Structure formats: C-alpha cells, structure tokens
Inverse folding.
C-alpha cells in the first residue's frame, strides 16, 4: 500500500499535479484572507475577469497570455485603487460596470479565437494536470512573493485589515500596503488562469477565507487555515476529477464549497455563549 | 516653540458643489481641551477628518508649527490620535481586544520591528486604566459598544499622540457608560498632557476639563469661546434651532429642551 503510494508519487506528472495543487491552493487562499476580511469580493471578481480578458487578448495578439493578463490586471488596479480611496462614491456600481465590460471583451475575444485556437477555452477553466514548466515557475514565484509579503508586513497587514482609516491615522503606510495587495491580486489571478481559469478562480478567492472565518479569531491561524483549505480543495478536486473524469476546475470549486459547508456546520464561533456562561467566564477571566 | 498646536486659516471643504465646511479659522494651543459642538450635519466630523488628514481641503492648516496638506509625513500622523465615532467591526473578525489596542503602536514602531516589552506593558497599562484589562483576550467583535469605545480610546493613546481627536466618543452608549467614558477621557487628558478636540452634539454630556467650545452650524463656525458662554439658552437655541433653556443646580448647569 505505502509502496504503491510512493511509487505513484514518483511519477513526474503526479508530482507536477501535486505541486500545482499546493501552489494554486496556497496563492488563491492567502489572497482570499484579504478578499474576505476587507470585504472586496467584487474587486476579486473584477481582477480575475481582467486577467481573463487580458489573456484572451494576448492570444489574439500573440502575446504571452500571462503577461497580457497581468498587464490588464494592473490597469484595472490602477482604476480600482483610487476609486476605493474615495469616500464620496460607492464603488460597487462602477465595479459592476467594469467587470461586465471586461467579460464582454473576453467573450468577444473568445468568439474570434475559438475558430483558430482551441486552447483559449482552457483560460476559462484551466487545468491542474496540464501545466507547463513555465506555468509552474511563475506560480511558484508569485506564491513565494505573496508569502514573503504577508510574513514581512504581518503587523501592518493586521492593522490595514482591521481598519484602513485607523491604520492611516496611526502612521501605518496603508496605501502602500493596499496597492501592493492589488498588485499581488493581479499576479495571483493571472498566474492561476492556467490552473483553475478565469471563471472559477473567484471561488478560490472567497471560500478558503470564508472557511477560516468560521473557525478562528487568530489572524495567523486564519492565514494557515485558509491556505490549508485552498490546498485541500485543489487536491480533493483533482482526485475527484481523475476518479470521475470531470473537469478539474469544476471539481475544485465544488470541493471548496463542501469544505465551507463543513466549516459552517461545525463552526465553534457560531455556538452562542449564553449570557450566564459569559458572566461566569468573565469572572474567571478577572481572577 | 510655537504655542499654537493647530491652526486653520480659511479652511473649506467642498464636495459635489456643496460646502461641507466654509472658511473655518481656528487656533488651538497646547494642552487645550476644546469641544466641537453642533447639530447633526454641521460639519463636525468633516472638520476632524481635515485635521486628521483624511480629507482634501482648501485653505491653510498647520500642525505643531508646520504647514500640512491632507497628505502628510508619518512623523506628523504619529502625533495625531484619532477615535472614530464607532469602531465598526464584524463579530467574527480575527482580532482580540489587546491586539486591537496594540495596532495603535504599529505606526510608531515602523516597518520590520516587532512590538517589545515596552509596547506590551503600555497596552496592558492603558487597558487597565480604561477598565478593559479583563477583556484583553476577547475577540473585539464580541465586546459591547461601550467596551469597544474604551478599547478604541486605549488604542489611540498607545500611539502616544500629542493631539487627540475624538468624534462623538460617547454617542451610542447608555448614560452610565457615557459618564464613565467621559471620566476616563478627563483622566487621560490630565495624565498624558494631551491637547484634545472633542466632537459632540450632546451638550449635557461634556467632560469636566473641557474649557472651550467651538460651535459649528452648516459648515460655518458660529461660536468660539468659553464653554460657560456657549452653554446658554440663547446661544444653544440659535445653533440648534430649537428652544433650549438652562438651569443651575448644585453649581452645575443643565440644559433642558421642551
Ligand atoms: N459623502 C458625502 N457626500 C456629500 N455630502 C456629505 C457626505 N458626507 C457627509 N456629507 C454632508 O456633509 C455635512 C457635514 O457632515 P458631517 O461632517 O458628517 O456632520 P456632523 O459630523 O457634524 O454630523 C452634512 O450635511 C452631510 O450631509
Ligand atoms: Mg459626525
């Protein structure tokens, strides 16, 4: 049994698939902590659509889809960043317009492309099994940079997640952190076009963070639980896609949803502490 | 050496064709405790936001003797503490009360430096002073409004500001807790030798050390002077556009409305 597992693990394609799971799951899930705690799912959607549209355009124009996707992400971030800084305007409507526009661009490109390149469809749902070496290297680099960013600026990140305004008021360079974050969002979504694709990535940008939100009050554990959830969802999804012969993107998203449902049901945070218990707890705390 | 900690000259804020603040002149000296009083929508929050550097404005503003725009260097921001009207947070948000207090020290520490013994001691000392030390390990989102407000005050003081901006710190609290928070504010203002701007629309709930009142109405400064001169039926009725009377009892003045 152990031997057969070890033998399976020694196959290069399996190793690559595992690496893809870890990198895709970790990068999306670490980002999802920000998406969930800063309540910016719409920014996540817009960015992933931007990456998608950019990649399609890249294929049309014969540019590396990762590069063109990333560039369009950065352009989108340049619009989104200042927008979210303005207090006098709810950005939701504009975000809605922006992401439907990007979707339109993407599908227009797809329409022109499908006659020439079948590979374009892959940008929509990706594949954890057919990553090129380059895809893996880029993904590894992006995941590494994101991890280093989180570790180095952990205490600043905590303040910015807590409140951007309070961060600004106490001399934390919150705008720098926020813009790095938008930049990293672009890098993560465009490098994951190859793994889960532009349509489904959104699930991985929300679900792992939502799982962690059910389970912990500790920010460090929050990042770890989220990352573990992302990796597990990718892994389970991949196995399911292999066993049942279904598209891996879809099974990854479904696996993530199942994990969320489990976390929701078993959440210790949702267990209500009754007032009397609370009081006893308080008195114990005081001692 | 300058005596004026804070100077505003003809400061205006315009948004969508409307003037939220128009031509505000204000000078505040070191260790003053100034109340900013006015009805809802008078521009009190906007004024604090201008001083805190959250809002673009026209006119001139100087802090600690140096001219400032809304973008300012970290060194200046460190010296201005800010307590928002409401510390909004989701019940499940992953931060404990003591960590929330500690966030006030992060800017002062600077990048790549971890909080040390001094920061931890300061955090606990201030939580103790604010009577929330027993809540230190509770998730912030689970605290009551009053407890959260005290945490918020401790957070602002951990930053070691010279100027403290308080935006209706006692709104949304019930009366006993309001009194308690006011007392705590009086206490810190004395102990930490702070210059304070205290925004409120509740003239019956003022800290004792507040000696001066600035009254705003429709974005204009309509009164600036001693608090005792501000708290008269005539003055208040004019600003709040509602008939108000005052009466004295045990040497304290109360304002009542019909
Ligand atoms: N985002 C906004 N856009 C336009 N007007 C605003 C906005 N926020 C506040 N105002 C207006 O600015 C005025 C002053 O607001 P504010 O400073 O919050 O008043 P206060 O704190 O004294 O209640 C109010 O009349 C309010 O309607
Ligand atoms: Mg206000």
């Amino acid at each position: 049994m152990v031997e057969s597992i070890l033998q399976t693990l020694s196959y290069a394609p399996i190793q690559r698939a595992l690496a893809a799971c870890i990198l895709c799951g970790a990068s999306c899930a670490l980002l999802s902590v920000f998406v969930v705690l800063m309540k910016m799912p719409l920014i996540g959607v817009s960015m992933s659509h931007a990456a998608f549209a950019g990649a399609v355009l890249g294929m049309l124009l014969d540019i590396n889809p990762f590069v063109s996707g990333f560039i369009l992400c950065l352009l989108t971030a340049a619009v989104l960043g200042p927008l979210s800084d303005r207090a006098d305007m709810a950005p939701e409507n504009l975000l809605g317009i922006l992401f439907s526009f990007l979707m339109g661009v993407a599908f227009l490109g797809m329409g022109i492309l499908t006659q020439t390149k079948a590979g374009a469809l892959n940008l929509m749902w990706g594949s954890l099994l057919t990553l090129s070496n380059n895809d893996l290297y880029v993904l590894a680099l992006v995941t590494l940079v994101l991890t280093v960013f989180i570790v180095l600026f952990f205490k600043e990140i905590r303040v910015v997640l807590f409140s951007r305004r309070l961060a600004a008021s106490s001399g934390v360079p919150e705008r720098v952190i926020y813009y790095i974050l938008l930049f990293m969002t672009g890098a993560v979504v465009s490098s994951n076009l190859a793994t889960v694709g532009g349509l489904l990535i959104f699930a991985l940008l929300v679900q792992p963070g939502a799982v962690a939100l059910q389970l912990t009050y500790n920010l460090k554990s929050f990042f770890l639980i989220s990352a573990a959830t992302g990796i597990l969802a990718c892994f389970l999804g991949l196995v399911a896609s292999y066993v049942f012969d279904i598209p891996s993107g879809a099974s990854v998203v479904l696996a993530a949803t199942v994990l969320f449902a489990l976390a929701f049901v078993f959440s210790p945070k949702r267990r209500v502490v009754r007032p009397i218990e609370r009081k006893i707890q308080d008195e114990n705390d005081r001692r | 050496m300058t005596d004026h900690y804070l100077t505003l000259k003809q400061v205006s804020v315009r948004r969508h064709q409307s003037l939220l603040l128009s031509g505000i002149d204000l000078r505040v000296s070191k260790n003053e405790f100034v109340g900013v009083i006015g009805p809802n929508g008078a521009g009190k929050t906007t004024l604090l936001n201008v001083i805190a550097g959250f809002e673009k404005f026209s006119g001139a503003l100087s802090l600690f003797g140096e001219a400032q725009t809304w973008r300012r260097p970290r060194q200046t921001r460190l010296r201005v503490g800010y307590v928002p009207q409401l510390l909004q947070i989701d019940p499940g948000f992953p931060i404990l009360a003591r960590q929330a207090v500690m966030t006030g020290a992060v800017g002062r520490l600077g990048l790549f430096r971890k909080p040390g013994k001094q920061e931890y001691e300061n955090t606990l000392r201030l939580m103790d002073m604010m009577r929330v030390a027993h809540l230190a390990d509770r998730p912030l989102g689970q605290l009551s409004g009053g407890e959260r407000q005290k945490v918020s005050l401790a957070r602002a003081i951990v930053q070691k500001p010279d100027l403290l901006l308080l935006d209706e710190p006692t709104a949304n609290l019930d009366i006993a807790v309001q009194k308690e928070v006011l007392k705590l504010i009086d206490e810190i203002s004395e102990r930490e030798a702070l210059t304070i701007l205290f925004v409120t629309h509740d003239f019956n709930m003022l800290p004792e050390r507040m000696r001066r009142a600035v009254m705003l109405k429709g974005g204009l400064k309509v009164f600036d002077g001693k608090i005792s001169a501000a708290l008269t039926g005539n003055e208040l009725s004019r600003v709040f556009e509602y008939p108000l009377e005052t009466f004295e009892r045990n040497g304290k003045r109360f304002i009542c409305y019909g």
Summary: Chain A touches chain B at residues 37, 87-88, 152-153, 155-156, 158-159, 162-163, 165-173, 212-214, 216-219, 221-222, 269, 282, 285-286 (CB under 8 Å). Chain A has one domain: 13-266. Residues 43 and 80 of chain A are 8 Å apart (CA to CA). The mean pLDDT of chain A is 86.
